[in-house]
Amino acid sequence: MSFELFGLPVSRGVAIGRAVLIASSRVDVAHYFIDESRVETEIARLRDARDAVANELEGLKRDMPAEAPAELAALLDVHLMLLHDDTLSGPTKQWIIERHYNAEWALSAQLEVLARQFDEMEDEYLRERKADIEQVVERLLRAMARGSAALAPASAGVGPRDFAGEDPLVLVASDIAPADMLQFKGSVFTGFITDVGGRTSHTAIVARSMDIPAVVGTREASRLIRQDDWIVIDGDCGVVIVDPSPIVLEEYRFRQRQSELGRERLARLRHTPAITVDGERVDLLANIELPGDATAAVEAGAVGVGLFRSEFLFMNRDGELPDEDEQFEAYRDAVVAMKGLPVTIRTVDIGADKPLERLTVNELRHEHALNPALGLRAIRWSLSEPAMFRQQLRAILRASAYGKVKLLIPMVAHLSEVRATLEALARAKQQLSDAGRACADIEVGAMVEVPAAAIMLPAFLRYFDFVSVGTNDLIQYTLAIDRADEAVAHLYDPWHPAVLQLLARAIAQTRDAGKEVTVCGEMAGDTAFTEVLLGMGLRGFSMHPAQIAAVKQQVLRTDTRRWASRLESVLSADDPEAQVRRLMREAQAPSVARAAARAARVEGAVAEVAADAANARLQ
Per-residue pLDDT tens for 43-70? Predict the structure, then answer.
């Protein structure tokens, strides 16, 4: 039966595919695809776990005290029966064989199927047996975790599947952890649906970076959608259609084809310089997470990397931090891949929605912080871990010997943080010099992400060479909105007058100081803001490579002088978004009038020719 769900549209486009559910579990489960050679290995892991749990249960029965109630022995018998029941083991093997899920994922997927069946049973006693199957599955998952690492092996990353004949897949989950999102990046999924999250939650950002449709904040999707349901994700409207009718499916397939044609047209702008109508050159830079993303940045026509999110090197590693050499190699690879174009590397921004799997000593003290977004994160975390921080700084400095590298410091708010950071950088340089390692002088920039930084910018500019505005966090902290919380996601508003005024002020002050300023948040890749940002004086935009062509098209159509003259009316408006729309309509009106006049002249000429022809026939 077809039905619709509604959420927040966070990544545009249409995705059609079968649902793949990641079920919530009290046991952490890694989700990754395996290749054909590992299928038998995963089935063997499943079999070994079943045998281990069977031995556990038999041992519990054997050692049970004589005075123990008979019901307890009966319960253990039920668990043993469920453990060996083919309705659990058989389909789980099929998930491994047909979908190439790892064993843990296959088991949790089959648990989801069985749990739904129990929920639909009319008999209350049978419905309550769902708890038994959940307990058996959790025992199996724990047994597999003890028997072998639950994380994907290095050789089994989530890449395009090499087995054919599969339907397209969309991922459905209550939420997706950043580590799992990193695993799924570049995978087979054509879209994402989550119960929770906002427009700038981690899932939303990664979905946009992958250029695939996504809807978040649906609240009930993971409960109502079943494994293998056919799904349509309308990333433009925030609508999810489950089991669509044939006519609806055909309509959305047509929209998919139109979207693909639009992307092909935009791709032709790849090598066109981004110059406005009035001759202003604009730098369109790329945001990347991993060194391999640099190739896509070059292919998209980026003139550099405006934001290398180094924290992704620290994630999905079971909490083991990368050492200096590993980091150096990653930074060097990105710098070399950019072929002489600048690479701006942000120091690790761990915390809030991007925690490490294993907490450090300092993080343990803040593990139960009520609001991690206001806790030990970004530069605060780095300064609290000086050994780790110096390792990262040395790795970045070493990479600067291979090309132009710029260093970006996240979430600065205090001059004391600025001074401590620059002192750590000076010590790292000295250590490299003492060791005889080459490095270049690099520019150091500040991220403006909190209102304090925007207000303190004139003081900060005495220490920094450039500024990068992180609009995602700037909006969050200015409006006191947790951007990952769907309950308040509707209040997250990049058009809020306070946000625009802080942004305009930061751009103007940095340019007045003769220094470069870029915007690297989601606003940079949103064409709705391109003209306004250009009117503010912004000449550097950093975004995911997939967004560059659309922004470039908007840049090529913009007269910055005209928008600069309109800026005050936008910043002083109660509703800046409505004011921008009105100004755009006014700008389009003359051209529409000219087109109408031309059409009228043509119509008149045609009528005159027709009249002459009619007269000729009469004569």
Answer: 999 999 999 999 988 888 787 766 655 6
